[in-house]
Design a protein that fits this description.
The complex is a heterodimer of chains A (167) and B (287). Chain A has 167 residues and is α+β, with helices and mostly antiparallel strands. Helices cover 40% and strands 13% of the residues of chain A. Chain A folds into two domains: 2-75, Ubiquitin-like (UB roll); 85-166, [2Fe-2S]-binding domain (DNA polymerase, domain 1, Orthogonal Bundle). Chain A has seven helices and five strands; from the N terminus they run ββαβββαααααα. In chain A, strands 2-1-5-3-4 form a five-stranded mixed sheet. In chain A, a hairpin with a 2-residue loop joins β1 and β2. The radius of gyration of chain A is 16 Å and the shape is globular. Chain B has 287 residues and is an alpha+beta fold. Chain B has two domains: 51-171, Uridine Diphospho-n-acetylenolpyruvylglucosamine Reductase, domain 3 (2-Layer Sandwich); 178-279, Enolase-like, domain 1. Helix content of chain B is 32%, strand content 26%. Chain B contains twelve helices and 14 strands. Chain B has helices at residues 9-18, 31-37, 76-81, 83-88, 90-97, 102-105, 110-116, 124-129, 147-150, 226-232, 239-252, 263-275; strands at residues 3-4, 23-25, 45-47, 57-62, 65-71, 133-138, 141-146, 151-153, 156-157, 164-171, 178-184, 195-204, 207-216, 223-224. In chain B, the strands form four sheets. In chain B, strands 4-5-10-6-7 form a five-stranded antiparallel sheet. A four-stranded antiparallel sheet of chain B has the order 11-12-13-14. A three-stranded parallel sheet of chain B has the order 1-3-2, covered by helices on one side. Chain B is globular and about 60 Å long. In chain B, 50% of the residues are buried. Classes of the chains: A alpha+beta (167), B alpha+beta (287). At the A-B interface, β4 of A face α2 and α6 of B.
Chain lengths: 167, 287
């Protein structure tokens, strides 16, 4: 039995522990945010957090989730504490990285976006004021075939500024 | 299929002794890709990620001087964030910063990089030039092997089926004034080295007192070239001496042609990378 929390909710799964975490999250937990791009760790589309650290769910086994706090793109907004206090609309809350990507044209086809967002949000939690080189380094394991990356880096810079103001 | 997650070393060794069919998994960034490519299910796995004593990085004193002991399950991210590694083993820090990308570094371990034994492994040349040794353990006992005796070929090591690599001990280089690592790849992030050069030089009063050189991706395992090192030793650090050493290096390497580069290209670049030592940033020409 694999026991872990997923976006803050306790899970008990009776599955083969050598299945990929990516498949278990998508097929058993119904969360299709983590995407399979390459399945070999090259593209970053499957990135999730395990205990707050970015991990590639295609190269993580289900059994490795045991005892961990797992966050996917579906639960990322809740990890940003400011949302509860400030959100007064009917829209589902977004993490500042999500808002910035949407507003600055950092999303085109969207396939890389969940992984890109998880990696960027982890960077901003560790390093509130990264320069562009640090942002590019942080997302260097995430492939995007649409945007050419500039607008993604712009978006992450914007999100960093938003988050610094709210802190 | 069972996946064991032992939390201490004795439990790990007992599992390996009791499950001869088991494979050891550290970060999984090589193993899981290889198994999937071969269309195989993982089978019995013993995962090292929760063995706390294998994750430590510590400075220590040995009979021959200061050293750093790195637990086999320390991740590449752990290496990058370790002040001990950055200050005492700058070459390993450089290799870690050129390693894949942060997403992979968060899982990949130094022990995994050693045991995968790829000729292109990013941390291996640094470990070779610093004369590192690996620590191995099984229920039969522990042993220690110098790096070149452990990695015996591409994907081949001296690890016995019931053994686990527990750590690597790296003597702190003391007399060396130049620590250089350069990786030529098809892009900066995520690139498997086409050729890499790792060099440590001890330059005193303009002369090279000692030189240690290692190349990646130009032979079945890491390539050292004692002849090139001998040419540099006692010479001034000039383009003339480096050109002569580069000729020796091109004779010493044994590259293959593959999807990333031809053997001829690798041989040429293996020598060329040495010439870079003549104009490293912060050095005046000929000094």
């Amino acid at each position: 039995m694999i026991v872990f929390t997923l976006n803050g909710i306790g899970q008990r799964l009776d599955v083969d522990p050598t299945l990929r975490a990516l498949d278990v999250l998508r097929e058993h937990c119904g969360l299709t945010g983590p995407k399979e791009g390459c399945g070999t760790g090259e593209c970053g589309a499957c990135a999730i957090w395990m205990d707050g650290v970015t991990r590639l769910s295609c190269l993580t086994l289900a059994g490795q989730l045991h005892g961990r706090a797992v966050t996917t793109i579906e639960g990322l907004a809740d990890s940003w504490d400011e949302n509860e206090a400030t959100d007064t609309t009917d829209q589902p809350p977004l993490h500042p990285v999500q808002t910035a990507l949407a507003e600055r044209g950092g999303v085109q086809c969207g396939y890389c976006t969940p992984g890109m967002t998880m990696v960027a949000a982890e960077l901003l939690r560790r390093e509130p004021n990264p320069d562009r080189a640090a942002i590019r380094e942080a997302v260097s394991g995430n492939l995007c075939r649409c945007t050419g990356y500039h607008k993604i880096v712009d978006s992450i810079e914007d999100a960093a500024e938003t988050m610094r103001k709210k802190r | 299929m069972p996946l064991f997650l032992p939390t201490d070393l004795s439990e790990t060794l007992a599992l390996l002794a009791d499950h001869p069919e088991a494979r050891i998994m550290a970060g999984g960034t090589d193993l899981l890709v290889r198994l999937r490519a071969a269309g195989r299910t993982p089978g019995t796995l013993v995962c090292l990620e929760r063995v706390a004593e294998l994750g430590r990085i510590e400075a220590l004193e040995t009979a021959t001087g200061p050293a750093v002991r790195i637990g086999a399950a320390a991740t590449i991210t752990d290496l990058l964030r370790s002040d001990t590694v950055r200050q005492r083993l700058p070459l390993l820090h450089r290799a870690a910063s050129a390693f894949a990308a942060p997403t992979v570094r968060n899982a990949a371990t130094i022990g995994g990089n050693i045991c995968t034994a790829s000729p292109a492994a990013d941390t291996l040349p640094a470990l070779h030039v610093m004369n590192a040794s690996v620590e191995l353990a099984s229920r039969r006992g522990a042993r220690i092997l110098p790096m070149p005796h452990f990695v015996t070929g591409p994907g081949r090591t001296a690890l016995e089926p019931d053994e686990v690599l527990t750590g690597v001990v790296v003597p702190v280089p003391r007399i060396f004034t130049i620590h250089h690592f350069e990786k030529v790849g098809q892009r900066q992030a995520m690139a498997i080295a086409v050729v890499s050069l790792t060099a440590m030089l001890a330059v005193e009063d303009g002369r090279i007192r000692d030189a240690r050189l290692a190349w990646g991706s130009v032979g079945p395992t890491i390539v050292r070239c004692p002849e090139a090192e001998a040419i540099l030793r006692g010479s001034r650090l000039t383009l003339t001496a480096l050109t002569e050493a580069a000729r020796a290096a091109r004779r010493a390497v044994a590259p293959i042609s593959d999807v990333r580069a031809t053997a001829d290209y690798r041989r040429q670049v293996a020598g060329n990378l040495l010439l870079r030592l003549a104009d490293l940033p912060g050095r005046k020409p000929g000094s």
